[in-house]
Amino acid sequence: MGEGGALMGRAHVGSIVGRARDFGRRRLLRTERAVLDRVGGRVRNPRVECPLCGWSGPFFASSVKPFRRNRICPRCHSSERYRALAALLDGETTDRAGRFLEVAPTKLLPRWAASRWDQYVSLDLRSARAMVHADLCATPVVDGAFDTVVCFHVLEHIPDDGAAIAEMARVVAPGGRLIISVPFEAHRPATFEDPNVAPEDRERVFGQRDHVRIYGTDFADRLVRSGLDVSEVMWGDFVSRQTFDRYALAGDDDRFWVCRRPG
User: Fold this and answer.
1) In terms of Cα–Cα distance, which of 31, 63, 34, 36 is closest to 47?
2) Long-range contact pairs involving 74-77 (C-beta distance under 8 Å, separation at least 24)
3) CB 247 within 8 A of CB 47
């Protein structure tokens, strides 16, 4: 076997080993979540609590990618960004009744949102969970249809994120808000993107094979171009330290961009 063949062989073996390791870890984490869910609510002085489903216990379950302990609610499977969203919206004193849109829906928001908004709608291009199947850059939604729009970790997948942002701004009602979360590097002053990067190289360049950019501190500027008033809100600024720890909000994300449509 030539050197190239040997390298390919080692890479193939490494890929198999990596998949086997992930499979084994997933099995262990499923067991961990099942055990935690059984003991949830029966622990004296629980250390963590999920504001979405009410589960409480000694700690949250671990996540697989990235592997991190105390991250995933064993009952509703929320990660820290969704618990932070609940903390943000539950902490408001204004009337939140209205229409709520979730872009790229999860399993965990519909019931929670339905108890707080008059209407919950979800949108995605392909997801079986979505109520509306559409391209985020060109939706069939009428202007100003929603009072609250939530878009978490979607824009980094879209080549024309400017069109997607403009479309979400269009469907937000006057006085409404768009709440966004994206992978973000605080040390990077300018967003990095290169449309010439081949799909097979995206994981190496952008950190994930289905990402097309890495956002920097100029992300808010992209949002402002759509005519929205933008605030970069750190999670630690709207919850106490005790709540921050109880909801286990430490992780890769630490902020939302809250965009309000004037009017």
Assistant:
1) 36
2) 74/32, 74/33, 74/34, 74/36, 74/37, 74/40, 75/37, 75/40, 75/50, 76/50, 76/52, 76/107, 76/108, 77/33, 77/106, 77/107, 77/108
3) no
How many CB atoms are closer than 10 A to CB 163?
Answer: 15
Tell me the torsion sign for CA atoms 76, 237, 156, 251: negative
Closest CA to 211 of 178, 183, 252, 253: 183
Q: What mean pLDDT is predicted for residues 147-153?
A: 97
The predicted-structure confidence for 22-54, as pLDDT tens digits, reads as follows 555 666 667 666 666 666 666 677 899 999 999
66 upstream amide cis, omega within 30 of 0: yes
CB contact at 8 A, 181 and 256: yes
Torsion of CA 49, 55, 56, 62, to 10 degrees: -80
pLDDT in tens, 199-220: 999 999 999 999 999 999 999 9
